[in-house]
């Protein structure tokens, strides 16, 4: 996020950006089926986050609650966070053995821009669940984890 007018811009420092994201994530996003927050409130670097996605309607994911881990390294938001599903899921962009969202197979991370947020990642993953190539894939038993 940049602030300013008339061609000049100020880059918002990492921690201010993350505090803004924390505030949004804790309120719940959109229809409330996507949320996120910090793993450890004492982590002054705000690196480790947990995300939750409730599976979209009319898909094999409907009614399921998926937990994810997001890790924002010191170069976030210049570079995307690493994203890994904690809940087992079968999706074309997720490594079947580790749960890692594979950057080359997931557009938001593959084409990362500084303006993108963890909210963007989670909402796009939810959309990806509803995409034709994922919406009917056989899923691991509910309540199983990577």
Description:
The longest helix has 14 residues, at 14-27. This protein is globular. Helix content is 21%, strand content 18%. The strands form 2 sheets. A 4-stranded antiparallel β-sheet has the order 3-4-5-6. Strands 1-2 form a two-stranded antiparallel sheet. It is of the alpha+beta class. It has helices spanning 14-27, 107-110, 118-130; strands at residues 2-3, 10-11, 34-38, 48-54, 65-71, 82-85. The chain is built from 3 helices and 6 strands, in the order E-E-H-E-E-E-E-H-H. Residues 1-5 have low confidence and may be disordered. Heterodimer with UBC35 or UBC36. It comes from Erythroxylum novogranatense. This is UBC core domain-containing protein. InterPro entries: UBC (IPR000608), UBQ-conjugating_enzyme/RWD (IPR016135). It holds the Pfam family UQ_con.
Task: Quickly describe the structure.
With 146 residues, the chain is of the alpha+beta class. It contains three helices and six strands. The strands form two sheets. A four-stranded antiparallel beta sheet has the order 3-4-5-6. Strands 1-2 form a two-stranded antiparallel ribbon.
Task: Itemize the secondary structure elements and their pairings.
Blueprint: E1 2-3, E2 10-11, H1 14-27, E3 34-38, E4 48-54, E5 65-71, E6 82-85, H2 107-110, H3 118-130
Antiparallel strand pairs: 1-2, 3-4, 4-5, 5-6
């Amino acid at each position: 996020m940049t602030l300013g007018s008339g061609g000049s811009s100020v880059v918002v420092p990492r921690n201010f950006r993350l505090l803004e994201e924390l505030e949004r994530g804790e309120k719940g996003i959109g229809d409330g089926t996507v949320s996120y927050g910090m793993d450890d409130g004492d982590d002054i670097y705000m690196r480790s986050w947990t995300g939750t996605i409730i599976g979209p309607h009319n898909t094999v994911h409907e009614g399921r609650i998926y937990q994810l881990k997001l890790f924002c390294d010191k170069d976030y938001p210049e570079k995307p966070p690493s994203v890994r599903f904690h809940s087992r899921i079968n999706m074309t962009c997720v490594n079947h053995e580790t749960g890692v969202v594979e950057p080359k197979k997931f557009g938001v991370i593959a084409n990362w821009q500084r303006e993108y947020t963890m909210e963007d990642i989670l909402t796009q993953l939810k959309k990806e669940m509803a995409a034709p190539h994922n919406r009917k894939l056989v899923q691991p038993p509910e309540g199983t984890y990577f």
